[in-house]
Amino acid sequence: MWIDTHAHLDAPELWPEGSSIATPPAWHTAAVAQGVTRCVIPAVARGNWARVRELAHGLGHVYALGIHPLYVPHMGEDDVAALDEALQQHAHDPRLVAVGEIGLDFFVPHLNTPAMRERQQQVYRAQLQLARRHQLPVLLHVRHSVDRVLKHLREVRVAGGIAHAFNGSMVQAQAFIQLGFQLGFGGAMTFDTARRLRALATQLPLSALVLETDAPDIPPQWRYATAAQRAAGQPQGLNTPAELPRIAQVLADLRGLPLADVAAHTTANALAVLPRLQQGGEGL
Question: Can you list the positions of beta strands (E) in the chain?
């Protein structure tokens, strides 16, 4: 069994005309056939909380509720309170496994102003407090913001979680591990040029790694079209959970391990860090 710990299955590009929960897209059928039996579907804003929950229940996956840092500029004043209410309302839903996607993004220029950095941190910290109150792990967005994300985690302790699309240093990786976090590795690791990331994937303990696609984003190397190729009319390849086993094969090759070992360890890691994946029983 494979677990895709981060897949935005509500993205419109994943749903071609004629597909629906009752008639899933071809990529979903392919993913299930390859053993990708569970995906964690993170929310990004109040407007898609209902959709990710619907997809989790309709397709047999799990979900998280939260406010992504990219959506902080557009959120309403009562959205954090609404998140608190939603977490309480669905507290007994075994498919609700985390608070997320939350965190900080200091890469996007309009989010990296002093005012927006401060606002992001206010919203991130408030969501950490909700995660602690509701005893849920968190799914973290940490783009160009690892040290600041860690600072707040040390001050507002939560029940662990996953640092999604991790691309920090070894020291930062160890800091997350000490706080009870797993590190998410996906398509970025498949690029030959990603030497530092591939070194981390090789050197970190296997007990600290989980797999993800971030579908439909961060396509693996074999699905990626360069800027020049896109300018010439070649479309970007669609990233889906069906790519997860091949991404895992890259990790297995980097570490010199059988693919079955990577499957067993990363699945066990995901189940440990997101306990409700286990508590859901046959319903999942």
Answer: 2-4, 36-42, 62-65, 96-105, 138-143, 161-164, 181-185, 209-211
Residue 123's closest CA among 49, 72, 161? 72
Q: Residue 42 in 3-state DSSP? A: strand
Express each pLDDT in 208-243 by its tens digit.
999 999 999 999 999 988 888 888 877 778 999 999
Closest C-alpha to 104, from 91, 118, 90, 115: 118
- Give bridge partners of residue 182 from the DSSP assignment: 162
- Classify burial at 164, counting beta carbons within 10 Å of its beta carbon; exposed 0-12, middle 13-18, buried 19 or more: buried
Q: pLDDT exceeding 70 applies to what percent of the chain?
A: 98
Residue type, 62: V
Identify the structural domains of the chain with CATH numbers, from first to last: 2-283 (3.20.20.140)
Alpha-carbon gap, residue 38 to 60, rounded angstroms: 7
Structure tokens at 88: 């309480």
C-alpha–C-alpha distance, residues 261 and 23, integer Å? 33
Phi, psi of 70 (to 5 degrees): -65, -20
Instruction: Using pLDDT thresholds of 50, 70 and 90, give the confidence band for residue 103.
Output: very high
214, 239 contact by CB (below 8 A): yes
Supply φ then ψ for residue 75, to 5 degrees: -75, 155
Give the tokens for residue 71: 């959506």
Residue (of 244, 104, 95) closest to 164 by Cα position = 104
46 vs 21: CA distance, rounded Å: 21
